[in-house]
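Subgroup meeting minutes
Present: P.N., E.W., G.H.
Scribe: E.W.

1. P.N. recapped why we're keeping a running log of single-chain structure predictions: easier to compare across weeks, and new members can see raw inputs and outputs side by side.
2. G.H. added today's entry (128 aa).
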Amino acid sequence: QVQLVESGGGLVQAGGSLRLSCAASGRTFSSRPMGWFRQAPGKEREFVAAISWSGASTYYADSVKGRFTISRDNAKNTVNLQMNSLKPEDTAVYYCAAGAQAYGLGYVSPASDKYGHWGQGTQVTVSS
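Output recorded in log:
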């Protein structure tokens, strides 16, 4: 079983930066792809970024490409999301997710149904 706990959310002005972290427990963390998703009020959950087990492959939503960077440290069982040049439209609850299974060394996916474990979420609010 994988348990995920997000941290690092908060209130920031537009143009600012935040770094989200996700701490994972469970022996299977290092064998699974990891992802970040977000959900704004009144909207459906959407994909933000994902990283493969090896860390060599990453995938970003067009809306965050060039501004956000996902990384992972398998030795520490953590995955991070560095968010720069934040915009008010980035305001949402951000969720960390672990792959439902060990898909493969370089596997990465933006599809939420490929992720079987979710954190409780951390609020990010960007003021204009």
